[in-house]
Each structure stands twice: as C-alpha cells, then as structure tokens.
Amino acid sequence: MNNTVGLAYRARKVVVGTDLTISSLRMGKLHLILLATDASHTTKKKVYDKAKFYQVEVIEELTSFDISMALGKDDIKVIGITDRGFSQLLMSQRRK
C-alpha cells in the first residue's frame, strides 16, 4: 500500500493535508481518503463526517509515519486520492 501511495503522489494524484483534502472533497475531486490511525479525534471526526456526506470512502490503516514516509514528508495525517485508478488499487490492497 505504501508503494502505491508514493506512486500516486509522484504522479500528482494526491492532495496532502486535512484542509486541502476537505476542500477537494467539496469540489468533488476526490475518490478516496487515507487517514492516519494516529490522527487526532477532532481530525478523524471532521474527515469521517465530510466523507460520509460526500460519499467518499476512508481508509484508516496506515500510521502518520507510514503515510509521511511514502510521500517523503513529515507528519502527514490526511491525504486525498484524486485519481479513480489509484483509489481502486488502494482499496484492493487494503487489509482484509
């Protein structure tokens, strides 16, 4: 899953951060949201509420460290996937 996230980021199919993710969600540009398991309760509630309203799936399996390493950044809690193909690939890779 980490490799796919990094590939999507390099292909510029990812928005990084809570605010950018939510604004992209409002514009109907997102197909999937990745939320860090160690994100704050407030962040999780905000993301889940918006995702439910806009009917976008949320995957909460990776830690902030895992997401940050995949992107080559520090302390990333939320990313949005803007490409349908990458979102389907990530959903198929999720842990059963």
Describe this structure in words.
The protein is an alpha+beta fold. It has helices spanning 2-10, 18-26, 41-54, 64-71, 84-93; strands spanning 14-16, 32-35, 57-59, 78-81. Helix 3 (41-54) links the parallel strand 2 and strand 3 (57-59).
Q: Can you give keywords for this protein?
A:
96 residues, 5 helices, alpha+beta, 60s Ribosomal Protein L30, Chain: A, 52% helix
SSE blueprint:
Layout (H helix, E strand, L loop, with lengths): L1 H9 L3 E3 L1 H9 L5 E4 L5 H14 L2 E3 L4 H8 L6 E4 L2 H10 L3
Parallel strand pairs: 2-3
Antiparallel strand pairs: 1-4, 2-4
Helix pairs in contact: 1-4, 2-3
Q: Short description, anyone?
A:
The protein has 96 residues and is an alpha+beta fold. The protein is built from 5 helices and 4 strands.
- Which CATH C-level class is it? Alpha Beta
Taken in chain order, the helices and strands follow as HEHEHEHEH
Uncertain runs: none
The domain tally reads 1
State the helicity in percent bands.
Answer: 40-55%
